[in-house]
Amino acid sequence: MIEHSHPQIIMKEFPERHKVNGTLNGGVCAISKHSLERNMGLEIFSLHNKVLTEMEGRMRDTNGRLYIGALVMLIYLLIGAIVFVRLEYPLERIERETHWEYREQWTRRLLAVGIEESEIDRLFADIRDAVLNGIWVEKNVTSTPNWSFGQAFFFAGTLISTVGYGRVSPRTEHGKLFTIVYCVIGIPLTLALLSAIVVRLKRPSQLLRGVLNRRLAHIFHAGQIQMFHLLIVCLLLLVFVFIIPSWIFTKIESEWTFLDAFYYCFVSLTTIGLGNYEPGDSPDQEYRSVYKIIATVYLLVGLCCMMLFLATLYEMPQFELTRFFLKTEEDTRMVNENEIGPKYSQISEEDGTQSYENRFYQP
């Protein structure tokens, strides 16, 4: 045992590359803490530069794939545009002709009673703006205001969930400014909360996968069991997040078909939020405020379920499409495994596998 009186002297086992002529100088050497920290700093700096070089190499080697992906995306957008024009424009043309005839009839009637054409144009513009802002004023119809507590709660939910329908939106300067500040704070907090909930939801999902592994491992290989697990999660999501809520919406919204309700659920939970369908949109909706609050809760719960599905999906290598555009870390780790400084093996207690990570000695 070698004793040292200096308190800053520590012991460190040298890696293989510090051997001289096949033998380690003294086996175990004493180094000052200051010298070790300096060497560690240089080693970390060297490793940092090596990692940056590897990242640049990965991106440079896969630029061609990225260009192909961008071209495929452009073609996909063009196909979508062509299909939507073919499907939707004929109906829009008929509706435009119908509304034009309706406007011409009322314009002739109003001109006949002495109302100027500019005032008629202004009347139709006001009606259009009122409808776009969700304002209805009908005879013998009592409606709740758009900015009741329930509607405001629903609007706040669409902001922090990034759904953002846009049917009802702030029109005052202070309201627009508050919306910006509210989203800057609320969206990161919401994403963090939903992510934490998804982590907890993954626990029963992982338990289900463990059961499948125990029951089916002697019949199917791991990839097939993983696919079967994904199908079960997808089926549960489809039934409890889309089909059952869609059926409930058709019972509440008298003008919605099942397809309309399913379309609303899908567009909302994927955060597309087109806004052409919105629960509680009718001004004479019973218990409109309560209905809006329940719809907000559905949105947030549904988003958690969608995030769980995506997390399960991305765990499967078959659906990890980013591998096509970037090399995986294993590609470069295999090439430089023996060049990145001291390495220490780590044993996973869960599955008994051994992985290697770049670890630096900490005094």
TrEMBL record:
Membrane topology of the entry: Multi-pass membrane protein
Domain Potassium channel per the UniProt entry, residue ranges: 144-201, 238-316
Keywords tagged on the record: Glycoprotein, Ion channel, Ion transport, Membrane, Potassium, Potassium channel, Potassium transport, Transmembrane, Transmembrane helix, Transport
A single GO cellular-component term on record: plasma membrane
GO terms for biological process, alphabetical: stabilization of membrane potential
Glycan-carrying positions: N140
Residue spans crossing the bilayer: 66-87, 147-165, 177-199, 219-244, 256-277, 289-314
Subcellular location field: Membrane
Domain of life according to the entry: Eukaryota
Main location: membrane
GO molecular function, one term: potassium ion leak channel activity
Record-linked InterPro entries: 2pore_dom_K_chnl (IPR003280), 2pore_dom_K_chnl_TASK (IPR003092), 2pore_dom_K_chnl_TWIK (IPR005408), K_chnl_dom (IPR013099)
Listed PANTHER family: POTASSIUM CHANNEL, SUBFAMILY K, TWO PORE POTASSIUM CHANNEL PROTEIN SUP-9
Family in the record: Belongs to the two pore domain potassium channel (TC 1.A.1.8) family.
Name this protein carries in UniProt: Two pore potassium channel protein sup-9
Species this chain originates from: Parelaphostrongylus tenuis (Meningeal worm)
Lineage: Eukaryota, Metazoa, Ecdysozoa, Nematoda, Chromadorea
